[in-house]
Amino acid sequence: MLPQRILMGPGPSDVSPEVLQAMAQPCIGHLDPEFVSFMDEVNTLLRKTFLTENAVTLPISAPGSAGMECAFVNLLEAGDKVVIAINGVFGMRMVENAKRCGAVPIALEFEWGTPVDPDKIESALKENPDTVALAFVHAETSTGVRSDAQALAALANKYNCLSIVDAVTSLGGIELRVDDWGIDAIYSGTQKCLSAPPGLSPVSFNAAAMHRVKKRKHDPQSWFLDLNLLTGYWGAGAKRAYHHTAPVNTLYALHAALTQLHSEGLENSWARHASNYAKLRDGLQQLGLEYVVDEEYRLPELNAIKVPEGVNEAGVRSHLLEQHNLEIGAGLGPMAGKIWRIGLMGSSCTERHVDLCLSALAEGIENNKS
Amino acid sequence: MLPQRILMGPGPSDVSPEVLQAMAQPCIGHLDPEFVSFMDEVNTLLRKTFLTENAVTLPISAPGSAGMECAFVNLLEAGDKVVIAINGVFGMRMVENAKRCGAVPIALEFEWGTPVDPDKIESALKENPDTVALAFVHAETSTGVRSDAQALAALANKYNCLSIVDAVTSLGGIELRVDDWGIDAIYSGTQKCLSAPPGLSPVSFNAAAMHRVKKRKHDPQSWFLDLNLLTGYWGAGAKRAYHHTAPVNTLYALHAALTQLHSEGLENSWARHASNYAKLRDGLQQLGLEYVVDEEYRLPELNAIKVPEGVNEAGVRSHLLEQHNLEIGAGLGPMAGKIWRIGLMGSSCTERHVDLCLSALAEGIENNKS
Fold it and tell me: Is this complex's ipTM strictly greater than 0.95?
């Protein structure tokens, strides 16, 4: 039996008892007519969450990294130019994915902790009129920064290329409007602001993106992530074509988590994330702690905090985990050892979590000064 | 709330209440030190199940099809020759995977419902001494046939190529000895004879297979399934490198299911599958029903039965589902409409299941004669 933690790291977030119980329902056959209707319900709930009418809106049967790979392998072919904004770990991963597709990434780097600069993106798109796609991360989990997805998607439209948006940490936590913003392809995860267990990656592709998938010269390099096959399996209403075996129980959990989200209301969820962030921010300020990101660009759901001079970074995290069963995150890559990442995602975004985190953090820091 | 079914199709099989409850434990962080030890336990349990000492034995965070893709994208590079035995749907899928790697599949076809003929495989390997791998399905879920994995793996060794074995439906249900049989790469699923929910694919790669992965000219085309990265994440003991977010709760379920399996004993599980098969076979004979596969090559866990003349195939399945909440499977591909597939897998392999299936089937057939 593993210990019960309070999850305030970069994900997974706390999963509610209702969602856990939904997950523990008896498994049903993935081709059962009742399950097929259930799949339609999941897709409908996902459309409500992405704020899209896209027919191709479904959960990939694997975590968010597979959602990223799904977008890249379906939309890019060998030799295709793709402009990729890098301002953290997940932009770097996009470049890696593009390379493995044989595509030609034009990587634009931005200082970690700052958002993607639309002007620089526009220059790159202007210089490379044969660009097929612009890929960027809406909410960088590694730094806690929000980029302007609406402005960036508009640039992709202006320069006649597809937008690929990483919304792993944004979906459900901050404003995100797939159709209104003209986003072409987007993927997310379930274990962040949706507060379902990890293991699925909701994706959505609009007609322009699917047009590109359908007119590919070669099949996507992944069979498992081939959207032409996946849409046959998940396709609403029509007779399903067997593809793989969907992770039935994990889908039960996602269905329950999305139902909870929409029972609260999507915009109310965004507001809750904003208000608990404000409470956390004020408390952290009182502790003399500083954010990595300027206030304007901060993600309410992922708070990257500088470790004060003379404080043992890992010691504080261990203290929180061992004394309070409270998980917060470490830094990744160049930020390892220098920051903590405090998540306020989904079910982990409550006043109680904020209070607990602030008092435990104060104690942990006090106990880990050199 | 979905109806509670009795799962006697080609998978998923019934998941025990204990496994469902394990899955509903609170989610823990995938980098939590306690979870890292838990991952080691899962890998140890998987080694006991595959009967291997392979260091690289781990569950891929996606269903069995992704396990297949993992084997192909890691072991094959563009231009590599791979001999693939096709005697059902899953051999065909292997060819599809090989093509997407840019590999050159040498596909050998065998009549559906018959096993792979080692003599024909040997001829092909002899004719193609530059073959990199031999891929075949141990237990063809589409037809219910068992091929001689030991003999086929020995041929791969004899002709100095790697064996890639699909054990999705065999693991836990019939004899399978990865080390003793000299299998190089193998993948399975969780929702068949292991009776965990779908969503994971246990894989194992021996030193020869990993040598090939390490000396590749190019990175595998999949980032998500790249074994060099996955072993950094799952690597026993050492500090883990973050790769993706493991499906924590699904792993709880797998751990519990494997614990149940080894509490019974692996060989006892094989024996249970054999004895309940014998009971089912005798009962089906009494109903005048015929198997697709000759007795010698039958899988106890997957019974492919010919639909009698004048009986409405789909009508019988609907009757079973609607009147008894009992799922059996339909035929795939050329066998659609011609056969039923009755699963006796894992927790669905009990005397009670056999009795229920026989009586329901007798009634269903009686009600669906034209």
Answer: yes
